[in-house]
Amino acid sequence: MVRLPLTAAEVERGQRLGALLRRARGERPMLGVALDARVSPETLRKIESGRVATPAFPTVAAIAGVLGISLDAVWAEISGPERGVEPAGSGHGLPVGTSGAGSGRPTEH
């Protein structure tokens, strides 16, 4: 399977995700957070540094859960600045009137 190169927006979103997770982790050791989330410390390190710009949803959900961050808060943080740039109907935002309750993921169209 060939992976398409990431867009500048995807790279930037990955950097924002990494920064958010680093801030939320604070002084907690990376090893402890990674083990609690059942991911490798190297995976967490790569996500926090922005080297993995598009981590799998279950990975993000597990790390956010360990850090006590809601997935709605994660999405709001990482998608904020570029929302006006995304094409209409891209499925990357919560529909109006949706609290995000349930899966914590944006609705796919």
Question: How is this fold's topology laid out?
Answer:
Elements: H1 8-25, H2 30-37, H3 41-49, H4 57-67, H5 71-79
Helix pairs in contact: 1-3, 1-5, 2-3, 2-4
Task: Please explain how this structure is put together.
- This protein is mainly α and 109 residues long.
- It contains five helices and no strands.
- Helix 1 crosses helix 3 (41-49) and helix 2 (30-37) packs across helix 4 (57-67).
- The radius of gyration is 14 Å and the shape is globular.
- The protein starts with 7 loop residues before the first helix and ends in a 30-residue tail after the last helix.
- The model is unreliable at 83-109 (pLDDT under 50).
Number of strands: 0
Strand content: under 5%
Low-confidence spans: 83-109
Q: Which term fits the overall shape?
A: globular
By DSSP (H or I, 4+ residues per run), the number of helices equals 5
Largest sheet: none
N-to-C span: 24 Å
Cα Rg = 14 Å
Quaternary structure: single chain
User: How much helix, percentage-wise, in residues?
Assistant: 40-55%
Which secondary-structure class do the elements indicate? mainly alpha
Helix and strand succession?
A: HHHHH
Structure summary:
The protein is mainly α and 109 residues long. Helix content is 50%, strand content 0%. It starts with 7 loop residues before the first helix and ends in a 30-residue tail after the last helix.
Descriptors:
disordered C terminus; 109 residues; globular; mainly alpha
